[in-house]
Design brief:
- It is a single chain.
- It is built from 12 helices and 11 strands.
- It folds into 2 domains: 5-248, Type I PLP-dependent aspartate aminotransferase-like (Major domain) (Aspartate Aminotransferase, domain 2, 3-Layer(aba) Sandwich), CATH 3.40.640; 254-348, Aspartate Aminotransferase, domain 1, CATH 3.90.1150.
- The protein is α/β, with parallel strands linked by helices.
- The strands form 2 sheets. Strands 1-7-6-5-4-2-3 form a 7-stranded mixed sheet, with helices on both faces.
- The structure holds pyridoxal-5'-phosphate.
């Protein structure tokens, strides 16, 4: 495990002089602002946003139990994923290692940044292949991407195995915790002090119900966060999103998360009664992964009833698999009825 993550920055990034905004130079809030060429007539949106998101970070700091200097706020966690590449990986020189199957943006962002991805299949039981991940890395491997609970397999990886990976790797481990609010085990935010080579990604798009506002977090060593802030667009979060996120963070999502988990159990218990479903994987997320003999047929049958799920049959280790998001009670009832109908037809074949 490396102790100083700044040694891994791309040379041009380490040498960067960032854009300095008018709001960076003068931080007070009272006064006559004639420094940013804004239109002076107040309409609620005529001023540039705070490039540091100071107020929102205070709120997030309380919710997450971590100091604001450890928090990067981005336009979705997709922005944080892209920044991982831009900050650490020299195009066509460096590479990253990532688990497969997993979230598609790790490889898309890599391709855009001209960075090689070495995909390592999960173990057959979807557990974390720590030794094979480490074996896939070489002197040019800057990042290892893992996701727990993982999309689309829905399982959390063993904490001790995640720790072993972090402690054994001489680069940065990026741990995507998009679904952590639905998981039984705790995440790694509380351990960041121990691991200067760990970046935890979280998002407000899932449990917090703000996918439309585009707001994601990276949590890491202050030196990494500080560099993310230098490289990001100065005004990556707009004023409207800042206000709405601030308001919606006051909501108590606990009961919604409990309701979704309750519905998840209901759906999984029902799925066990179906002949067309061969396997239902344990879920620590707000979706379930099921395996059937013919994912395309199941997908199309649901689609005919107006229900759209995610066909994952073409992903590695996922042949025959369909990923189903947990909806409202009423939506899940519709799904159950449609599945029942499909299962009855399936049994006649
Ligand atoms: C949905 C999801 C995200 C969320 O990305 P945003 O850009 O924050 O909406 C991140 N990682 C994984 C694994 C996801 O499934």
């Amino acid at each position: 495990m490396i102790q100083d993550p700044t040694t891994l920055f791309r040379a041009n990034i380490a040498a960067l002089t960032p854009y300095s905004t008018a709001r960076d130079e003068y931080e007070g809030s009272l006064g006559v602002f004639l420094d940013a060429n804004e239109n002076p007539n107040e309409n609620g949106y005529n001023r540039y946003p705070d490039p540091r998101q100071t107020e929102l970070k205070k709120k997030l700091s309380k919710i997450k139990g971590i100091a604001p200097e450890h928090i990067f706020t981005g336009n979705g966690s997709d922005e944080a994923i892209d920044l991982c590449y831009r900050v650490f990986c020299t195009p066509s020189v460096d590479n990253v290692v990532a688990i497969a199957p997993s979230y598609g943006m790790y490889t898309v962002a890599a391709a855009i940044n001209d960075v090689e991805v070495r995909e390592v299949l999960l173990n057959e039981d979807f557990s974390l292949p720590v030794d094979r991940l480490l074996a896939a890395a070489d002197a040019h491997t800057k990042l290892i991407f893992i996701c727990s609970p993982n999309n689309p397999t829905a399982n959390s990886f063993d904490r001790t195995e995640i720790v072993r990976l972090i402690e054994s790797f001489d680069g940065i481990v990026v741990l995507d915790e998009a679904y952590i609010d639905f998981a039984e085990q705790k995440g790694f935010i509380g351990d960041l002090d121990k691991y200067p080579n760990l970046i935890v990604l979280q998002t407000l798009s899932k449990a917090w119900g703000m996918a439309g506002l585009r707001f994601g977090l990276a949590l890491a060593d202050k030196r990494i966060i500080s560099m993310f802030n230098r490289v990001k667009y100065p005004y990556n979060i707009n004023v409207a999103a800042t206000r709405l996120v601030g308001e919606l963070l006051e909501c108590d999502i606990e009961s919604q998360v409990e309701e979704i988990k309750h519905e998840r159990t209901r759906l999984m218990e029902f799925a066990q009664t179906l002949k067309c479903i061969k396997e239902i994987y344990p879920s620590d997320a707000n979706f379930v992964l099921v395996r059937t003999d013919n994912a395309d047929a199941l997908y199309n049958a649901l689609l005919e009833d107006g229900i759209i799920v995610r066909n994952r049959t073409r992903m590695p280790l996922c042949e025959g698999c369909v990923r189903i998001t947990i909806g409202t009670h009423t939506e899940n009832t519709k799904l159950i009825e449609s599945l029942e109908k499909y299962d009855a037809q399936w049994q006649q074949k």
